[in-house]
Amino acid sequence: MNNADVCILIPTLNEAATIGELIKDFKKEGFSNILVIDGNSRDGTAQIAKAEGARVVLQTGKGKGQAMIQAFELIESPFIIMVDGDGTYLAKEAHSLLGPVLEGKADHVIGNRLEKYSPGAFTRLNLVGNRLINMFFDVAYGVDLKDILSGYRAFTLESVRELELNKTGFEIETEISVECILKKQRVEEVPITYLPRSKNGATKLNPVKDGFRIGSTIYRLVKVYNPMFYFGIIGFIFIVSGLFTGIFVVTEWLHGITRIPLSILTTLFIIFGLQMFIFGMLSDLIVTLHRQTVNLIQEQNKRRK
Ligand SMILES: Nc1nc2c(ncn2[C@@H]2O[C@H](COP(=O)(O)OP(=O)(O)OP(=O)(O)O)[C@@H](O)[C@H]2O)c(=O)[nH]1
Ligand SMILES: [Mg+2]
User: Atom 22 (ligand 1): residue with closest C-alpha?
Assistant: First the structure.
């Protein structure tokens, strides 16, 4: 392996404060194949990156996700490192991220920020949000990943070409993580340092709006992977609501008061909730059978090759 076989992919939007230094740092580590995909920054980010010797491409659409998808199409190098341009990640840790990919042990390596982050790197809201999102993700997909939203990753070109990506904003990391699981890739996590954002560069992430988008992306994408989880959550909410109204109706009835509309509502809640579980079971069956068919076809294709 030659360092030129590794493309350092940096998405940027107004990161003039940090991009120059970041490119220098990667060069110091021996990586000269650097691709900056810029979202038409207005602070001279693209010019700085060019002056530092990076290949700069302007993105044609909007959002970090669109930029990444566009960049993946342009890359020919067999290995890719993706890293945010805001100077929160260390170039020297690229080697430990690449390790498992180069050794052929993993297709996709995630830099786990949540083990040794610097004080101030996460706001309290971001830290709690990240932990909740990871917990939700792990339960939904039945995996044990600690930092699916990390912006520092290493993977093979082959593995990224396999992913079907559509998300245009900050949901891109979620979608990449989900697709890796759907495509049965070997995903590993390596602890990395996470530094606070430079005071001169503003965040593009809105923790509440983007956090909500990320959560709903995880939920929507799980429908075809784990439908029991998808329908089960809705069913659970309705059954719990039914139990609450039901307990109220029964207590009132014991005191001699009959609540007819609320009794009807209770019945509807519980019937609807149970139906959701039945949908879940049926969908689960369909997904399992579909998976078996796909596996069979893949095995036959492999045998033919
Ligand atoms: N090309 C492109 N890059 C973007 C866009 N939005 C954000 N980025 C870059 O994507 C990287 C991650 O964005 P950040 O704003 O740092 O988001 P974050 O790291 O999740 O949040 P912070 O914790 O606030 O840093 C940075 O390098 C941004 O410049 C975009 O629309 N287009
Ligand atoms: Mg950042």
Answer: 203
Q: What is the pLDDT of residues 30-40, one digit of tens each?
A: 999 999 999 99
How many domains are contained in the chain? 2
* Ligand 1 near 11 CB (within 6 A): yes
Q: In the Cβ-directed half-sphere of 107, how many Cα atoms lie within 13 Å?
A: 17
Residues 6+ apart with CB under 8 A from 68: 9, 11, 37, 82, 165, 172
Do 151 and 74 reside in the same domain of the chain? yes
Task: Output the CA–CA distances (angstroms, integers) from residue 113 to 121, 127, 133, 149, 265, in the order listed.
Answer: 10, 10, 14, 9, 47
Sheet-wide strand order for 34-38? 55-58, 34-38, 6-12, 79-82, 153-156, 108-117, 187-194
Task: Report the percentage of the chain scoring pLDDT > 70.
Answer: 100
Q: Is 108 in the pocket of ligand 1 (CB under 6 A)?
A: no
Q: Which two tokens stand for residue 91?
A: 């170039």
Mean of pLDDT values over 66-75: 97
C-alpha pair distances (Å), 137 with each of 64, 188, 235: 21, 16, 19
Cα 180 to ligand 2 centroid, rounded to whole Å: 22
303: tokens are: 């045998």
Domain that holds residue 97: 3-224
Q: What is the pLDDT of residues 18-59, one digit of tens each?
A: 999 999 999 999 999 999 999 999 999 999 999 999 999 999
Q: In sequence order, what are the beta bridge partners of 153? A: 82, 110
Is residue 91 within 6 Å of ligand 1 at its C-beta?
Answer: no
Q: Is 37 in the pocket of ligand 1 (CB under 6 A)?
A: yes
Please report the pLDDT score of residue 144 as a whole number: 96
Contact 171, 212 (CB under 8 A): no
User: 61 with 50, same domain?
Assistant: yes
pLDDT, position 193: 96
